[in-house]
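2024-03-11 09:14:02 DEBUG pipeline.ingest accepted 1 chain
2024-03-11 09:14:02 DEBUG pipeline.ingest length=263
2024-03-11 09:14:03 DEBUG pipeline.predict start
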Amino acid sequence: MKIIERPCKTALSRSGIYGWVYALNPYRGCEHACRYCYAPNILRLKRATWGTFLEVKKNVPVVLAKELKRLTPGLVGVSSVTDPYQKIEEKYKLTRYCLEQLLKYKFPISIITKSPKVLRDIELLKKFSYSEITITITTLDSQLSNLLEPNAHSISERLKALTKLSAEGLNTYAFLGPLLPSLEPEQVPEFIDKIKATGVKTIMVDTLNLKPGIWQDVESAIKKIPKTRDKFYSRLFEESGYYPEIFNLIETECIRQGVNFEF
């Protein structure tokens, strides 16, 4: 992993994600190297480089503080094109320092991560007037997760983190995004049951977005399990009804189990 320390000129950007007013990305690049990630396309990077480098915006807390002084408070999403709690955060603590500034200026926050390292900041997160923490769960299949999310924390670790965050009274979400097209209809009840068991109140879903190059990266990662590769191909390119059907089943199960559903 190539680490590059680089100053930034801006910290916040206007967000196009529903509900978010601003987006904050303390790092550029991501160690997790998820094969389905859309961020390289958004950042106009070569997909082959994704997961091989990480730019550290070393002055981002200072820049953020200056911006917050003049901005109207609105929901800040942390983060949209990187994971704010990847391993490098242990050294640089940029996410932590940025959260301290956001708290100081009374901005509400929405965190999305695949990392249990968010648990480090529980006491800080409790101090916000509004905070929500979303942990991404794309599958319960550990083999598939290892192939497509090679450097991310295990699914079991993420579920444990959700359980801890929920037990601490924080506003938690499980993001099934992208929900990998390996989930079978008959598996939906058990899938939702395991997520509900964490204490999470809301489940959000999204499809696997096939921006240019993504299918090729996904296919390359799962080629050693041809049955799964064929299933992915069929459901992504031939069965237009897969995601509507599976999302409808998930919504029905969420209603049955008393969990909020968002799409």
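2024-03-11 09:14:41 DEBUG pipeline.report Residues 2-262 form a domain with the TIM Barrel fold (CATH 3.20.20.70).
2024-03-11 09:14:41 DEBUG pipeline.predict end
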